[in-house]
Amino acid sequence: MRTTTLLARRPGFTIRAVTCWDDHVGWSSPEPRTGFGFVLARRGRFGWQSRGQVVDVDPTVGYVTVPGAEERFAHPAGGDVCTSVEVGPELWRGGAPADPALYVDARLELAHRRLLKAVQAQDVDYGVVEELLGLLVIAGKSAVPAGSRDRMLLAAAREAIQAADPGGLLPLAELLDVSPYRLSRAFTRELGISLTQYRNRVRVGRALDRLEAGEQDLAGLAADLGFADQAHLCRTIRVHVGRTPTAVARIFKT
């Protein structure tokens, strides 16, 4: 089951919220895509297939869409919530990417959240457009390098890290029954970041959830997310987002 809600539309773009409750393991019937754009997950995990390529989608990896492509979906993990953005050719640059996977770093996630906040404010012609343009700029720099020799390994590792911190690279490699050397190299080669950076990116995403919900106890937040202390939390968020937790909280309040 799937519901689609129109969030904002103008001649040059359309933004929709998509919520799925499907639990089918196999691929769905093909669905045509009408425009350029991308899909970013807010919650959940699912599979996307198009043009002979597969992307395992979750809040840290989205995908780029191109007009005329047929897409199929699989939902072995249950439901998910996504934001689907389609833009006209006047806003799109670069044509169809060689690899549709889009790594969602913390800056891109924050830009995504800012876009949704602008939608809530209903200032479509100025606020939403401005945030959308910023999101497009960041997304254009976030393409995952082509070539996914270890796609299944990375999907399993990402799922394990997001479910619960396994306690380190070695325990994670043991859990996945793979060499720690191969696991470490796979993250750098396929996502362009280290496994440590990915793990911190997941923790920063959880911190953004709490800050957006009004969290003020940074020391408690640091402890809950496994940071050494509040200073470690603040440094990590600043590295990934480019802002302090206090500055991020102010964005969510405006």
Automatic annotation (TrEMBL):
Keywords: DNA-binding, Transcription, Transcription regulation. It holds the Pfam family HTH_18. Gene3D superfamilies: Homeodomain-like (1.10.10.60). The keyword Plastid does not apply. It comes from the Bacteria. Residues 151-251 form the HTH araC/xylS-type domain. This is AraC-like DNA-binding protein. It comes from Kibdelosporangium banguiense. The lineage of its organism: Bacteria, Bacillati, Actinomycetota, Actinomycetes, Pseudonocardiales.
